[in-house]
Design brief:
The chain has 2 helices and 10 strands; from the N terminus they run βαββββββαβββ. It is α+β, with helices and mostly antiparallel strands and about 130 residues long. The protein has a single domain, classed as Roll (2,3-Dihydroxybiphenyl 1,2-Dioxygenase, domain 1), CATH 3.10.180. β8 and β9 form a beta hairpin. The two termini are about 25 Å apart.
């Protein structure tokens, strides 16, 4: 039997970092932390209290926002699923009728990340944490 893999993060694209940050801060009280150009202008979205970067309350997750790129198709909100072995999970996606998009990227201080599409065409991503 497979281990259950939890949803550990969410991601959404943005066109205007200032506008989207103000929106989520004002409407939902999130803390938005832009990481800057050295991190591809990714913005961490803290939706709940954390300790060492991890949510302190069970069942809660944080997320992030990434700049939309016109040359990349179908940029939509994604759930990010935590996996123990990203290569095995990639093989599982392909074997079950999904499609993996490229090779895993190393996100410093977070882990290996790769996007995929499930058998119904839904976009998602997976992360093998390094910490």
């Amino acid at each position: 039997m497979l281990n259950r893999c939890p949803v550990v993060h969410f991601e959404m694209p943005y066109d205007d970092v200032g506008r989207v940050s103000k929106f989520y801060e004002r409407v939902f009280g999130w803390t938005m932390n832009p990481l800057g150009p050295e991190s591809n202008n990714y913005v961490l979205a803290e939706t709940t209290e954390t300790e060492d970067g991890r949510p302190t309350m069970p069942g809660r997750i944080n997320g992030g926002l990434f700049p939309r790129h016109p040359e990349r198709p179908a940029q939509t909100p994604l759930m990010v699923i935590g996996v123990e072995d990203i290569r095995a999970a990639m093989a599982g996606v392909e074997g079950a009728g999904g499609k993996v998009f490229g090779e895993p990227d190393l996100i410093p201080n977070f882990g290996l990340y790769v996007a995929f599409q499930d058998c119904e065409g839904n976009p998602a991503a997976m992360l093998q944490p390094t910490v």
